[in-house]
Amino acid sequence: MESWRGTFGTAEVRRRRLTRRITKIAVLCLFLWCIYEGFRAALGWIVGLPKVGEVEVTGACTVDPKEVVERCGVRPGDRLYKVDIKEVAERVKGIPWVRNVKVHRNLFGKLILKIEERKPLALLVAGRLFPVDADGVVLSPLKVPPDLPLITGVPEEDIRIGKRINYLPAERALRWICGVGDVEPGLLDEISEVNAGEGKLTAYLTDGTEVVLGGRPMQDASYLHAVLQRLSQEGRKARFLDLRFSCQVVARF
Exposed (0-12), middle (13-18) or buried (19+): which is 198, by Cβ within 10 Å? Predict the structure, then answer.
């Protein structure tokens, strides 16, 4: 009889211990869940609290900051952390002169738009002077055009602001200018115009010299630089240069 009671007592102790353990685990889980929900509620309240007080634009030289603010679509009073950063960036990149934009926000209610503008490399002559960058994107005209090489012979109907050049000879002329800029950047100061007529590219130097290009920027730049240096040393000026032939330059005086 005593042996039975001892066995029963041990089983009862184990059951009570197991019950207490399960209760503690349940209480702990409930406590952690309450903390988690409280944290979520507090975080949601904090995130939703700041409002946009100011939209700041940096890096804009050619682009009008007011246009950037208008295009971004964010207004004072909007919930700062509910602003869709990617959507804002895509809207602003719709401005032709904007190459890229980074959007930041701070806890003081400021939305910051850091603009990277496109850098014009040449001017398309098509009724007006349209800047064009190294990617071939046509930009809106400026009140005071920069001192850059002109690309002539481009039909006006092929110009679309904010779009890439859709005229193959003009694309070739731009690639030539880009290539020369990579090899002999100082040589671009000597080039006044590149005519993108059908069949061949013809450049005109600032001194009036006509240069028929070979269409190979690195080789053309090397040949033209060497010839101009030599003519300068000799005190002579050529009226015409032809770079289409390998290993030689045809000149007329």
Answer: exposed
Q: Is residue 42 part of a domain?
A: no
Dist. CA 138–CA 58, nearest whole Å: 23
* Maximum average pLDDT range among 84-98, 193-207, 211-225: 84-98
Q: Provide the token pair at 23.
A: 């209760």
Write 202-211 long-range contacts (CB < 8 A, 24+). Answer: 207/237, 208/239, 209/237, 209/238, 209/239, 209/240, 209/241, 210/239, 210/240, 210/241, 211/240, 211/241, 211/242, 211/243
Residues 151 and 202 in one domain: yes
- Smallest CA-to-CA distance from 105 within 52, 43, 44, 49 is with 52
Residue 33: give the domain boundaries.
7-37
Residue 247 phi/psi, 5-degree rounding, is 65, 10
Domain count of the fold of the chain: 3
Residues 168 and 145: beta-carbon distance below 8 Å: no
Answer yes or no: is 187 within a domain. yes
Q: For 87-108, how does the pLDDT look when each residue is reduced to its tens digit (9 = 90+)?
A: 999 999 999 999 999 998 887 7
Q: How many helices (H) and strands (E) does the chain have?
A: 5, 11
Asked if residue 127 and residue 112 are part of one domain, the reply reads no
Instruction: Answer yes or no: is 210 within a domain.
Output: yes
pLDDT at 78 (0 to 100): 84
In whole angstroms, give the CA distance from residue 170 to residue 201. 9
Average pLDDT over residues 122-146: 91
Q: Is the CB of residue 126 less than 8 Å from the CB of residue 151?
A: no
Domain-terminating residue out of 65, 92, 117? 117
